[in-house]
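[agent] plan:
  1. take the single chain provided in the ticket
  2. run structure prediction with default settings
  3. attach structure tokens to the ticket
  4. add a short note for the reviewer (M.T.)
[agent] executing step 1
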Amino acid sequence: MEGPQRFAARALRTVPNVPDYRVSLQPMDEEHQRLARSFGSVAEAYDRGRPSFPQEAVRWLVGQDPTTVLEVGAGTGKLTQQLVALGHDVHATEPAPEMLEILRRNLPDTRTSQASAEELPVPDRSVDVVVAAQSFHWFELDRALPEIARVLRPGGHLSLVWNLRNEKIPWVRKLGTLIGNQELLAKDIAEPLVHSGLFGFVEDASFSFWQDINRDTIQDMVLSRSNIALLDDEAREAKLAEVVAFYDDYGRGMDGMRLPYDTLCYRAVVVEQPGQSVTTSEDDAPEGPSDSEPPNDGPDDGMLLIDFR
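[agent] step 2 finished; step 3 output follows
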């Protein structure tokens, strides 16, 4: 694991072994919006094919002790399951109803809302941590960052996490080329936080793990990508045939293969804003609708690509 680092304005750390590319976090154009909306149609494949997150990374993101966590862009609940297992009080939000349906199926006792990062359904200063896994790059940041800052208690923090394929290994790099190399690199992912004026220093840490995949789950992983989800049926089937042929060359039949990842984590403490109101009662109703009932009770280092899509 690489130790935590700090970012200051105009002094962002360069991620080791990553070429000097920049992450585009401008307001979403029409094509970006189409890609962002594509995940609902592949929600089941996403749940079957995407990896979870290392427990040590989750502890780094939210802390050791149980706390109040708002998860934004929770998808099918890959990170949510880890947060709940560690004893945190979690409210998971997700804009895509198909993704949220699977999350609720997997975690029926977890509080959920169908909501976007730009309109969070919780009161001011009501949560200790806001966390986003594989989703921050889809947010409209000029709206989402002030909204996240609004709901955080003084001293609370925003945490971001992505699973990154380790493409130093040749066959992993070949897989990346096959399924699309439109991933964006991680060099300046923290810059919007630094320059927003809403958050303090940005720390980071990385953790390594392997995902076990087989002939079926590698197809689900590919289907869950937005660039593949938007293909027509014929093109999608052709791409899956290429992936199956790749697996037959590199996999080990029923034994599958192990796909190496690095999990890149960021966190930043919210800055006190003038005129912020204080939530005075834990019984205050949410500012937006909640759509569920309350709860009943390593691989080698190398080039890191953020699997944004």
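[agent] step 4 note for reviewer: The first strand starts at residue 2 and ends at 7.
[agent] ticket updated
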